[in-house]
Known about the structure:
The chain is mainly α and 179 residues long.
Amino acid sequence: MSEEESLIRRAQQQDQQAFAQLYEEHFDKIYRYVVLKIGSRTEAEDITQQVFLKALRSVSSFRWKGTPFSAWLFRIAHNQVVDYLRKKTKQATVPIDDLAISSGNDPQLLVEQKVNIEQLMSATRRLTEAQREVISLRFTSELPITQVAKIMGKNEGAVKALQHSAIVALRKVLSAGLE
Length: 179
């Protein structure tokens, strides 16, 4: 039995320390995934907390089938993001000003980073939903192709193709913006 499987079984038996360890191991990746999807750090914190509350409430229903626990968490996160976006009124822009930008005290660097983030967010809006999902899971949440494939319910070849087409599209959009 793997260490993760053991942790999950303990969490299913109401072991708070086991669930806390699962929370610590997965929080950052789930948070980065959510913040990229919705563009608001504050909202992403709330949604990520909701993901873990749902996970805590339903951890007993998780069945170990060889699929990583994180795939189950990302499915919950995806559903929470979809619910959030469905409820949110349609807006033309995504609030970026509350994204974490580490620039020290250099105002010029702060502005340059903010512009780069805005360009990237704008460029990702031109991708298909599947391409955005792959980019978010692969690069924001730093997941391997095999795990992304399981989360998305696709084979690894399809994920690689989506990732490649998304990167090509992003390069095209970003390079056109620099001209």
